[in-house]
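hiii, so i know i said id send this last week but things got crazy w the move. better late than never?? heres the sequnce for the chain we talked about at the cafe, plus the structure i predicted for it. fair warning i was half asleep when i ran it
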Amino acid sequence: MKKVILTVVAIAAFVLTASAQDNVANKTVGVPSRARIITPITLANSQALDFGVIARGTTDATVVVSATASITANIASGDAVVLSSATQTAAKFTVGGEGGKTYSITIPSTTQTIISGANTLNITNFTCSNGSTGTIGTSDVFYVGGKLSVPAAAIAASYTGTFNVTVNYN
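okay and structure toks below
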């Protein structure tokens, strides 16, 4: 009988030792890691936002250039005149990068200023032909327009400036 009891005690001791080893506080597990590199997004501007040549009026005016490929600037208010012989253009942009990837477009939401010496004019209400998104390979080109304020007291001069447009992968 002693032999049987001794064997049972030895088996029980082995099971308790194995169970204690399974409950170790530290374990190591291999975790898969991944990365996918894609083509960087690019943005090129090939055409300026140009409100054309404007004859100021006797009242404050606004001139709007729409965000389309072929536009005509129009007087939204006031009595200024946009000369028909002068070219008006929406700013034109081309996006490049990983085909099929979507991107977001950020245009100014605040007033931007163009200057001539100490004189300034303001551009507001920027619009984008693609709304705020596009897909590379489908909508690679978009246009940006805006509204120019032309005060009756605007100084006759050529005004220039820049504004920022940003594209980001979604």
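btw The mean pLDDT is 88. thought thatd interest u
miss u guys!!
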